[in-house]
Design goal:
Blueprint (H helix, E strand, L loop, with lengths): L5 E6 L10 H11 L6 E6 L23 H12 L2 E5 L9 H13 L7 H5 L3 E8 L2 H17 L3 E9 L10 H10 L4
Parallel strand pairs: 1-2, 1-3, 3-4, 4-5
Helix pairs in contact: 1-6
Length: about 190
């Protein structure tokens, strides 16, 4: 893994293609504050075919290396120094595409010769999210923080903004201000 920062933004909204929602808008504000030249990769999970995760931990105990879009996601995950989930709150939790992506981490930990868990422990994990109120986001924030903890990742925290109607977060002055330093803070 390179010592130079490489931020991977995993956008998990299920919004129609071409429509940037509140959460992605807020994440892009945070990304704009990164030092010039900081490498950024933005991946929209809606553009990938994510197969259902099949739990083989207690049968074969291992998984084949992923192929196609899942390999691209794995490669991008492994190449990043910092992972940022860009995830609106759906029913107090993460959207289904992000849950499927995270479920595949269980497989990637069990691909022979792939040091997934060890490499994840060298990365940071952050969350950018929006919802109608902060209390509705807390279960999701806790879930993502626990994922970071399980893999010994540095937890960089959560940036929350008041979402809801299109462009609502743009009026959330506290969130916009916090975005300016969210990804820069240690």
């Amino acid at each position: 893994m390179s010592a130079d920062p490489h931020f991977l933004f995993i956008v998990s909204s299920t919004r129609e293609a071409g429509h940037t929602g509140n959460t992605e808008w807020l994440a892009r504000q945070a990304a704009a504050a990164l030092p010039a030249g900081t490498r950024q990769t933005w991946l929209h999970l809606s553009q990938f075919t994510l197969p259902a995760f099949v739990d083989q931990r207690h049968t074969t105990g291992q998984y084949a290396a992923p192929e196609g879009g899942m390999k691209a996601l794995l490669d991008a995950t492994m190449a990043a120094t910092d992972i940022v989930f860009v995830s609106p709150v759906y029913w107090y939790s993460i959207p289904a595409p992000l849950k499927t992506y995270i479920d595949h981490w269980s497989a990637w930990m069990r691909v022979p010769g792939l040091p997934f868990k060890e490499e994840m422990g060298k990365k940071s994990l952050r969350l950018v999210t929006t919802s109608g109120d902060r209390d509705k986001a807390q279960p999701m924030i806790d879930s993502v923080r626990l994922c970071a903890q399980f893999l010994a990742m540095r937890w960089g925290g959560a940036l929350w903004g008041k979402g809801g109607a299109p462009k609502a977060v743009e009026a959330d002055a506290a969130a916009v201000t916090a975005a300016a330093t969210f990804l820069i803070a240690a």
